[in-house]
Input
Amino acid sequence: MQREDLGSLFGRITRRLIVAEEPLLAEQGLSMWGYAVLTHLAQQPADSQLALATAIGHDKSRLIPLLDQLEHDGLIVREQDPADRRHRRVRLTTQGESRLAAVQAKIRAMEDDLLADLSATDRRALLRILTHLANG
Output
């Protein structure tokens, strides 16, 4: 029997994770894209909304309503770039950091349940390998 292609395996795993994460995000008032924005901004503020869209792989024309909602909820702020008034810098607020930490704790607990059948050594190896593949 042939092994399943990586794309097929990753696709199935991704769909399984999305189904498991969506209710956890919804409890915190976040969409998947909102979570992607907060996660990215937790690592570094965005120099512009376009740079943010590019970094997370989101359609720039659909990003503005998402940022409007996140800003309305107090999770991000957009500030005019003094060097170029056409650009708006985007950063996480303290409330955004708290919301992100809360949802990440729930996601980590779900992931622990998902990986419960693996030994601690296999879990560490899996995370190391996935990180390596993702950062290529």
